[in-house]
From TrEMBL:
Coiled coil: none
UniProt remark on cofactor binding: Binds 1 zinc ion.
Species of origin: Ramlibacter pallidus
Name this polypeptide is given: Riboflavin biosynthesis protein RibD
Alphabetical keyword list: Hydrolase, Metal-binding, Multifunctional enzyme, NADP, Oxidoreductase, Riboflavin biosynthesis, Zinc
Domain of life: Bacteria
Gene3D superfamilies assigned to the protein according to its UniProt record, in alphabetical order: Cytidine Deaminase, domain 2 (3.40.140.10), Dihydrofolate Reductase, subunit A (3.40.430.10)
Catalytic reactions on record: 2,5-diamino-6-hydroxy-4-(5-phosphoribosylamino)-pyrimidine + H2O + H(+) = 5-amino-6-(5-phospho-D-ribosylamino)uracil + NH4(+); 5-amino-6-(5-phospho-D-ribitylamino)uracil + NADP(+) = 5-amino-6-(5-phospho-D-ribosylamino)uracil + NADPH + H(+)
Pathways involved: Cofactor biosynthesis; riboflavin biosynthesis; 5-amino-6-(D-ribitylamino)uracil from GTP: step 3/4; Cofactor biosynthesis; riboflavin biosynthesis; 5-amino-6-(D-ribitylamino)uracil from GTP: step 2/4
Amino acid sequence: MRRALELARQAFPLSDPNPRVGCVLADADGRVLGEGFTQQPGGPHAEVMALRDAAARGADVRGATAYVTLEPCSHHGRTGPCCDALVAAGIARVVASLRDPNPLVAGQGFARLQAAGVQVEVGPGAQESREMNIGFFSRMIRGTPWVRLKVAASLDGQTALANGRSQWITGDAARADGHAWRARAGAILTGIGTVLEDDPRLDVREARVARQPPLVVVDSRLQTPGSAALFQVPDRPVWIYAARHDAAAEAALQSRGATVVHLPGDGGKVDLAAMLRDLAGRGVNELHVEAGFKLNGSLLREGLVDEFLVYLAPKLLGPGQGMVNIGPLQELDAAVALEFVSVDRVGADLRVLARIPGR
Ligand code: AOF
Ligand code: ZN
């Protein structure tokens, strides 16, 4: 299963929005007969890749065990059911990390395998597989992406000086690491404030990618300038969420290749919860947020943030701009409670992954 999890990691971000799944076929002595991982959407799943690999090696898989990091599918999607392919090949036993939360599968894959006389075990590798597919699980179960808010700050939690200067607080290694997190996301989100102040590209430059994640801009009043640097990234979809109609502004943005989506909420602002549902509908599993104090605060206060990816530089900036607008609070009890998932050194900086408890 460890090898299957390693294979699953190779499906990043190729398989997106399909889950990252790995499969190893092994005989009773644990000898590997075939290996595979999920290909691009519409392409073969991990199990089919492993069966093909075994065939290419001339290995006999009858009576073998399939180790797979997610329940083999039972449905006819863009590809045929993997459990039928495993049964047809004579696989005797399936060890799977997790049940597939996709309502089209959800236990039916296991049931079909058992009905065909295949022995089924579930559990090994569950935690790792779930972490790898945290966005897929979120989209399938909640109907919204997993929302990860990225921040670079000083040790005293400041993301900019009082005069607005913010480049660069963290070092090269943290920047490259941040790009690797952008690369695994189904989309990157920012706000109009950041677009107007920083004019960022918000693409993946420091990691190898087959495709640039779509960029989402929360721009209630359609103020994104046609000259913004974000339009200079070739073949990268830009989705602008607005609250008000403005035919001229919309036409200008569409001529730059952007898609404009209207989702009016309270106070002339974009309905952020509705936006997340819309993004799930577009196949976004993990949403990587790089926005400012205000939008970060709105997302958090509406309960839409799942975790924080914070890079902390070993420096103090004094009073400036905080990470997220939640205050001022009157009571310590009112603090937003988080759990640390991991703390790592990245170059000269720290990377802290912290999660809202229960997510
Ligand atoms: C598997 N093995 O490697 C993956 C699975 O449209 P399709 O046919 O590609 O089906 C996509 C669904 O298949 C996806 O939503 C998830 O439920 C399952 N993914 N299943 O047996 C795999 N990636
Ligand atoms: Zn499948």
